[in-house]
Amino acid sequence: MGTVHARSLDPLPMQGPELGVQADDMDLGEPEQEEKQEVLENKDVVVQHVHIDGLGRTKEDILTYEVADVFRAKNLIDVMKKSHEARQKLLRLGIFRHVEVVIDTTEGADALPNGLDVTFEVKELRRMTGSYNTMVGNNEGSMVLGLKLPNVFGRAEKLTFQFSYGTKETSYGLSFFKPQPGHFERNFSINLYKVTGQFPWSSLRETDRGVSTEFSFPIWRTNHTLKWEGVWRELGCLARTASFSVREESGHSLKSSLSHTMVIDTRNSTILPRKGALLKINQELAGYTGGDVSFLKEDFEIQLNKTLFWDSVLSTSLWGGMLLPLGDKPSSIADRFYLGGPTSVRGYSMYSIGPQSEGDYLGGEAFWAGGLHLYTPLPFRPGRGGFGELFRTHFFLNAGNLCNLNYGEGPRAHLSKLAECIRWSYGAGIVLRLGNIARLELNYCIPMGVQSGDRICDGVQFGAGIRFL
Amino acid sequence: MSLAAEAFVSQIAAAEPWPEKATLYQPLKEDQILLSDSASSLAVQTFLRMCGLPVQVSCCANAEYMSPSGKVPFIHVGNQVVSELGPIVQFIKAKGHSLSDGLDDVQRAEMKAYMELVNNMLLTAELYIQWCDDYTATEISRPRYSSPYSWPLNHILAYQKQWEVRRKMNAIGWSGKSLEQVYEDVSQCCQALSQRLGTQPYFFNKQPTELDALVFGHLFTILTTQLTNDELAEKVKSYTNLLSFCHRIDQTYFKEHDRESQVS
Question: Domain B3-95 has what CATH class?
Fold first, then answer.
C-alpha cells in the first residue's frame, strides 16, 4: 500500500479549501506524541495544499489531474484513501520509480486549524535505462539490446528501442507512446519494426518491416483501439522441400490496413483468472489505404470464469474468426488463421490442423475453437500459501475446426461446413503461472476427431505462452 | 539437403516419365519481364522444344522469388523444381533426353566453352545495359521490374535490384566499362559465334544442341526487344549468318510447331 504518515488534529471549525500545487521543497514537521485518542472518522478536515517533491523533468500540468481528487476529501480516512488512489495513478504513469505519501497538518500564516498538507515524495526514473540479454533458441543464438527512455519530454511519453542480432535473423523495433494528460487511458503510440519469423509447420519464412500508429481510448467500460498499419512482407521457403503451394506464395507484398479492437475485461488476472469475463472483438480492413492485399478480417475471443467450491475454477473460452478476401486475388498465407498446438487445440502439433499440402499447413479462412477447463489446486496442496500456489491441476476439453469457406454459398452452408469434421481433445495436466505474464503447461492429451492430414501430439504435450485457449 | 540425399532424390525423379503438366515459370510477359530474363526463358523453352518435351508457360509476378536459386526461368516437373538452363539440361539428361549425346569429348568441351562465352559476355552485357546505363534503367528497367507492386514497395524493390546488379558488375570488374565498350564486347562475342557457326545450320553438325538453344534465346530476344536505342540489335544484325540462324530456328521450332498444333 505504501507508507502514509499522518498527524493528529485539534478539533476546530472548518472553512473552505484552497487549491494550490507547489513543486518546492518542504520540510517535514517533527512528529509529536499525543496522549489523547481521537476517533478519526468523525473529524472533518480540509486539504489545503498538495505538494509533489522530487520533480525533475516532469511537467507539472500532467500531475495536477492525477492528484486533483485529493482536494475533495472530507475526513481523514477519506484523505488517506484518496491519497492512496492518487499514488496509484502517479505510479501507473510509468515515470516514477516510487511514490511516498506524507500527510501533515498545515503550518504557516494561512493555515486552517483543520487543514492538511499532503506531500507526494517521488523519485523519477532515470532518463535512459538499457538492458542487454542473450537468448538461445532453436539452433540459434541472439543478443538483445533494449533501450528505454521513460518520460522523454516531461509528460509521460515513452520511447523504447529494442534490437536483436542473431545468428539467423536480425530484428528491431522502435516505439513512441504518448498518453493524453489527465486521461492516461487515452493514448497513442507509433511503432516501427522489422520482425522475422520462421514457421516450420508451413515451411515458411516471413520478414515483416512495418510502421503502425494506434489510438486507444475507453468508452464507458470498454477499451477501444484504432490502428493503421503498413507492412512490407517478404515470404520465402524455409527449406528446399517446401511444397509448391507455399513456394507460390513467396515474394513481396505490401499490406496497408485499418483495424479496430474492442476489449471488455473484468477478470481479476490475465493468467489463471478466478472470476470475470473477457470479450475481445477485432476487425481489420486491408487494401483501401494502399497496398497489394485486400481483405476484411474479423475475429473474436470470449472467456468466462467462475470460482466453484473448494477453490476450483471453471473456465470456458470461445475463439472464432473469418477472413474475406476482397477483389479477385486469393488470400495470402500470412493473413490466414491457424489452429492447433499446446496453446490452442491441445493434442495436435503446432498449427497442424486444416488445409495442408505435402505436409505444409496453409492455414484457413475461417475457424472456431472452444475450450472448457477446470482448474483445481494441486492434490493434497503441497507448498500451500507459497510456491504451491503457482501451480494448478487442470482438466480440459478442447474442440475446433479450421477450413476455407466458399463465399458464394449462404451462411447456412458456412455453418454446416464449420460444423463437420470437428477436431476435439480432452485430457489433464499441470499449469504453472509465471508472474502475471505467462504460463507453462504440461498436459496429457487424447486427440479425437482427427482428420487425414492433421498432425497430432497425443500423450504428453508441453506448452508455454501468454494466450491459451 | 546433403549431396547423398540430392542424388537419391534425382535418381527417383529420373525414373518418372515426363508429365503432361510440366510448367515453366517466368515474370509477366507484357509488363514486367526484362531483356535478360526473357532471353534466359526463351533459351529454356527452345531447348525443351528441341527435345520434344511439352511445357506450359506460366507467367507470375513473383516468379523470381519462387525460384529456388532466385533466377528465372524455372520448371516445375512432377515434384521437382529446377531453375536455370544448366541444371535443367542436367535434369532432362537424367530423364533420358539429351541433345549432346552425339558429340565426342572435344566437341562437348567446345560446346561448354561457347556456352560460358555467351553467359559471361552476352548475358552480362544485357544486365549491364539494363541496370548500369542510367537512361535505360530509368526509362525501362525500373518501371517494368516494379510494375506489379504498389507504392512505395515498387521503388524499394526496383532500387534494391539495381544496387544488387551494380554490386555484381563491380565484383566482376565491369563497372569501369563504358556503354561503347560493352557494345564492342557484344560485337566480338557475336563475331566468335558467327565464325564458329559458319555456313552450318547448327553449331555442331546438323543436330541442334543446348548451345543452339542458348544462342537463339539471347540473339532472338535482342533482335525483337525494343530498348531505348537500336544499337544492340544492330550489332547482331551485322552478322548475317546469325540472323538466318535465328530465323531458321524460329521457323522450325516455333512457327511450324504452333501451326501443327493448331491444325491438329
Answer: alpha beta
